[in-house]
Design brief:
This is Reverse gyrase. The protein has a domain at about 15-40. About 25% of the residues lie in helices and about 0% in strands. It has helices spanning about 5-10, 35-40.
Length: about 45
């Protein structure tokens, strides 16, 4: 059975930062795997 791509991405588990292990609050299908805190990003 084929699944719509939108359903596939919606059902992915939350991403976790590879440095600290916290959940990343961004789209699951993005390429980044490090949170803003570990990247030292300031707003």
């Amino acid at each position: 059975m084929l699944v719509k791509s939108s359903e596939f991405f919606k059902n992915l588990p939350p991403k976790k930062c590879t440095e600290c292990g916290k959940e990343i609050e961004e789209q699951h299908e993005c390429y980044g795997n490090t949170c803003h805190n570990c990247l030292k990003v300031t707003y």
